[in-house]
Amino acid sequence: MWSKWLAALLALALLAPAAAQEEDGYDLWLRYRPLAGAERAAVLRQARELVAPALPSPTVQAALAELRRGVQGMTGLAPADGKRARAGAIVLGTPASLPPALRPTGLDRLGNEGYVIRRIAGATVIAAHTDTGLLYGAFAWLRAVGTGVAPHRVDERSAPRLQQRLLDHWDNLDRSVERGYAGESIWDWWGLPGVRDPRYIDYARANASLGINGTVLNNVNAKPEILTAPWIAKAAALADVLRPYGIKVYLSARFSTPLELNETATADPLAPEVAAWWRRKADEIYRAIPDFGGFLVKANSEGQPGPQDYRRSHADGANMLAAAVAPHGGIVMWRAFVYAAENPVDRAKQAYDEFQPLDGRFAPNVLVQVKNGPIDFQPREPFHPLFGAMPRTPLMLEFQVTKEYLGYATHMAYLGSMFEETLQSDTGHAPGLTVARVIEGAQAGHPTGMAGVANIGSSRTWSGSHFDQANWYAYGRLAWNPQGSSRAIAREWVAQTFTRAPRALDDIVVMMMDSRDAVVNYMTPLGLHHIMGTGHHHGPAPWVAELARPEWNPVYYHKADRGGIGFDRTASGSNALAQYAPAIARRYADPATTPDTLLLWFHHLPWDRPMPSGRTLWAELVARYDLGVMQARGLRTRWAALAPFVDARRHAEVAQRLDVQVEEAQWWRDACIAYFQSVSGLALPPGSRPPARTLEYYKALRVPYAPGHG
Ligand code: BDP
Question: Which reaction does it catalyse (predicted)?
Answer without folding.
Answer: Hydrolysis of (1->2)-alpha-D-(4-O-methyl)glucuronosyl links in the main chain of hardwood xylans
